[in-house]
Amino acid sequence: EDKVVQSPLSLVVHEGDTVTLNCSYEVTNFRSLLWYKQEKKAPTFLFMLTSSGIEKKSGRLSSILDKKELFSILNITATQTGDSAVYLCAASPYGQNFVFGPGTRLSVLP
Amino acid sequence: GAGVSQSPSNKVTEKGKDVELRCDPISGHTALYWYRQSLGQGLEFLIYFQGNSAPDKSGLPSDRFSAERTGGSVSTLTIQRTQQEDSAVYLCASSLDLAGAYSYEQYFGPGTRLTVT
């Protein structure tokens, strides 16, 4: 059965800290891994990763995929209170649905 | 359209009544997904469509749940004889392609909050 695991499930930090969120997956016919940020209702897309070792960056956020060890990390540097959200990781198998992890709830305190 | 839209945004219904939730995907997106999210929980996959067909209905929780998509666009999720455990936010998402060689990210709608009293 395909599955995605995220850790930690919950994290509390202070503004300015750097955080690393983890995502591991077991998916047959894997093709890509995606990260989303969910603040209230709808998740919003952050990154899509298809190749190992190539870092994707967007401002203070960055992510990388390791297809050999079957995991990805999402880094957030110089965290701000606006980064508080649930961060979802999803694996996309070929021709099938996206498999979501449980999410990491990040709380950034002022 | 500019994004995925869903209606209604909120729905309160009495136990035992039927409800219909609507999703309007981004124009040109061939893949459409329905998820359910209970309070504080992760996303629970319900069903996806590639065009008008739904090859995987395994996520539907019971036979009270059904979904259809017409014209490769709008989709409706119907819940018959609602129960209190059906209360959740129902999220719809669409993506450019599902069955092709490339993976495209999903774009989510704002969701429908269903409350069954």
Overall description:
The complex is a heterodimer of chains A (110) and B (117). Chain A has strands spanning 3-7, 10-14, 19-26, 30-38, 44-49, 56-58, 61-66, 71-76, 85-93, 99-100, 104-109. With 110 residues, chain A is mainly beta. The relative contact order of chain A is 0.34. Chain B contains no helices and 11 strands. In chain B, the strands form 2 sheets. In chain B, strands 2, 4, 5, 6, 9, 10 and 11 form a 7-stranded mixed sheet that branches. A 4-stranded antiparallel sheet of chain B has the order 1-3-8-7, with no helix packed on it. Chains A and B meet through strand 4, strand 5, strand 9 and strand 10 of A and strand 10 of B.
List keywords for this structure.
heterodimer; A: 110 residues; mainly beta; six-stranded mixed β-sheet; five-stranded antiparallel β-sheet; 11 strands; 0% helix; 59% strand; B: 117 residues; seven-stranded mixed β-sheet; four-stranded antiparallel β-sheet
Short structural description:
The complex is a heterodimer of chains A (110) and B (117). Chain A is mainly beta. Helices cover 0% and strands 59% of the residues of chain A.
* Helix and strand sequence of chain A: EEEEEEEEEEE
Spans where pLDDT lies below 50 across 5 or more residues of chain B:
none
How much helical structure, as a percent, in the residues of chain B?
under 10%
User: Helicity level of chain A, as a percent range?
Assistant: under 10%
The largest chain-to-chain contact, stated as pair and per-chain residue counts, equals: A-B, 23 and 23 residues
Structural class of chain A: mainly beta
What's the pLDDT, averaged over the residues of chain B? 90
Q: Low-confidence spans of chain A: pLDDT under 50, at least 5 residues? A: none
User: In DSSP terms, counting alpha (H) and pi (I) runs of 4 or more, how many helices of chain B?
Assistant: 0
Oligomer status: heterodimer
> Whole-number radius of gyration of chain B?
14 Å
Supply Rg of chain A: 13 Å
Series of H and E elements of chain B: EEEEEEEEEEE
Largest sheet of chain A: 6 strands, mixed
What is the tally of beta strands of chain A?
11
Q: Report the mean per-residue pLDDT of chain A as an integer.
A: 92
**Residues in β-strands, percent of chain A:** over 45%
Supply the helix-strand structural class of chain B.
mainly beta
Strand content of chain B: over 45%
